[in-house]
Amino acid sequence: MAIDVAILTKDLVDFLAPLIPFLEETTKRVVAGEVIKRFGATAWGQAQILWEKLQPKVEAKPSLQEAVKDLVQDPADKDAQAALRHQLKKLLTEDAILASEVAQLWQEAKPTNVSVIASGDRSVAASGSVSGIINTGDSNTNVMGAK
Fold this sequence. Notes:
Elements: H1 5-16, H2 20-23, H3 28-39, H4 41-60, H5 62-73, H6 78-94, H7 96-109
Helix pairs in contact: 1-6, 3-4, 4-5, 4-7, 5-6, 6-7
């Protein structure tokens, strides 16, 4: 499978940008509580796995270190995001094995965009497989099986 490094790095930076300040924080236990409240435990865990794979390479390249440091200062800065994206793209283009490993981790971790909308009186929305009784109220009585 050919890896589109440009798309991979865009997705990674979009996902990691708001989390990088927390990933780079030294007081992990204190930060983890705050980041979980803000982004959720799943996103935090996925970010940590991806960052553990990337961090040794980041530490080995001053240009990547600087890009990360700039993003830590302002995660919403589009220029800082672009700089990190560029540096990650260079890294992953040079290191096909790392690119493959990161692509695999990203496939396992990337958020799925599922939108479920309930519209109208007594409508029900669900994501995934649902079985059993769905009661929307109105003093309904649920009867299962013979009495």
